[in-house]
Amino acid sequence: MNSASSECKTSYDARSVSMGILFGIWLDHPIHGKPAQTFKPEEYTQAKFRKAYEELHIFREFVRICDLRRKLGWPREAFDGMIRTLRDNRIIRVIRADESMLTQEEIRDCFVDENKTLMGLITWNGR
């Protein structure tokens, strides 16, 4: 292994460790109400997301994001990251939430996009 590759790997490893520590501190913070846990992205797959979506989708055109989030029970980072990825790749369509029709818990479990817009429904494209 050459020295440039070794330096890059060391730098990447240091960033990974730092991010892991920060994420653990974030999860431990009382506002999140959960003890620290190990975040393993490989556990949160599109296939699992799609399966949960299909189970909720049976009699509806759209699935409520809060229901899907609760069904999967994934960490917010994993769930929101999956929505962003699928949305950005035009696999799903995300629709704005009507806050007047939601409880505070449902609002909390919706998805907030980069523009701070509360999104409440998704539908799989091409169905």
Summarize the structure in words.
This protein has helices spanning 3-28, 46-57, 65-72, 76-88, 104-108; strands at 63-64, 92-96, 111-112, 118-124. By secondary structure, the chain is of the alpha+beta class. The chain folds into two domains: 1-39, no CATH class; 40-127, Orthogonal Bundle (Arc Repressor Mutant, subunit A). The chain is globular. The model is unreliable at 3-19 and 28-32 (pLDDT under 50).
Brief account:
This protein is α+β, with helices and mostly antiparallel strands and about 130 residues long.
Please write out the topology:
Elements: H1 3-28, H2 46-57, E1 63-64, H3 65-72, H4 76-88, E2 92-96, H5 104-108, E3 111-112, E4 118-124
Helix pairs in contact: 2-3
Quickly list its features.
127 residues, Arc Repressor Mutant, subunit A, alpha+beta, single chain
Helix and strand pattern = HHEHHEHEE
Number of domains: 2
Summarize model confidence as the mean pLDDT: 78
Tally of separate helices? 5
Question: CATH architecture of the largest domain, please?
Answer: Orthogonal Bundle
Radius of gyration: 18 Å
Helix content: 40-55%
Oligomeric description of these chains: single chain
Structure summary, number of beta strands: 4
Runs in which pLDDT lies below 50 for 5 or more consecutive residues are 3-19, 28-32
- Return the structural class: alpha+beta
Distance between the termini: 48 Å
Shape: globular
Strand content: 5-15%
CATH topology-level name of the largest domain: Arc Repressor Mutant, subunit A
Largest β-sheet summary: 4 strands, antiparallel
CATH class of the largest domain: Mainly Alpha
